[in-house]
Structures are given as structure tokens and as C-alpha cells.
Amino acid sequence: MKTTSMVIALMLAALPAVALAQSSATTSTQRIDQRQETQQKLIESGAQSGQITAKEAARLQKGQAKVQKMEDKAMQDGTLTDKERKRIQQAQDKEDRNIFRARSNSQRGH
């Protein structure tokens, strides 16, 4: 229980950083940012409900951070090319599958 509480606290602590990154993004990344936010909420609700273990939540958070880093790197020059957008969307697809699997498997956080 302590581990789950700790993971939830860490996730909540990371939210301002995600919000800051999203607020400074241009309109070309709004869909990417919205999807990141949705995925983040799925991870948090899964951890709170016990569908996701603390270890799974940490792994999923790491995946979310990787996608955010990809977006930040792609936006360094101020534009997001179609190739960069496709690569980020593919990474988000992978994270979607990981989240679904973690929420659907038989492991429980409680």
C-alpha cells in the first residue's frame, strides 16, 4: 500500500511538469499533448483503482516521459515535420498498448 501511495504521489508531482511542457507547445502539437494527457490520466486512475501495480505504473510513466522527450526534441527547431509527427504517434500507439495490457492483466496493485 505504501508503494502504491508513493507512486501516486510521484505521478501527481510530475503533472505540473507535463502541464508546463504542454502550455508552451505550439498548436501543431495539441493533439499529441491531448493524447499524452489522456494516457497520463489512464495510468493514474489504474494505479488508484489497483488495476496497475506500482512497478507497472513506474514503467508506464517512463514510457510517457520518453514520448514527451521525443516531442520536445522534435520541437527544438520550432516545427514538427510529418516524419517526426508519425514517429511520435507510433510511440504513443505503443504506450497505449502498454497501458491497456497493464490495466487488463491479472496483476493487481492492492
Describe the structure in brief.
It contains four helices and no strands.
Please give the number of β-strands: 0
* Tally of structural domains: 1
Mean pLDDT over all positions = 84
The largest sheet is:
none
Query: How large is the count of helical segments?
Result: 4
Structural class: mainly alpha
Strand content: under 5%
Unreliable stretches: none
Shape: elongated
The helix/strand series, from N terminus to C terminus, equals HHHH
Proportion of residues in helical segments = over 70%
CA-to-CA gap between the ends?
7 Å
Radius of gyration: 14 Å
Task: Describe, in plain words, how this protein is organized in 3D.
The protein is mainly alpha-helical and 110 residues long. The protein has one domain. Helix content is 78%, strand content 0%. The protein has four helices and no strands. The protein has helices at 2-23, 30-49, 54-74, 82-104. Helix 1 (2-23) runs antiparallel to helix 2, helix 1 (2-23) packs parallel to helix 3 and helix 2 runs antiparallel to helix 3 (54-74). It is elongated.
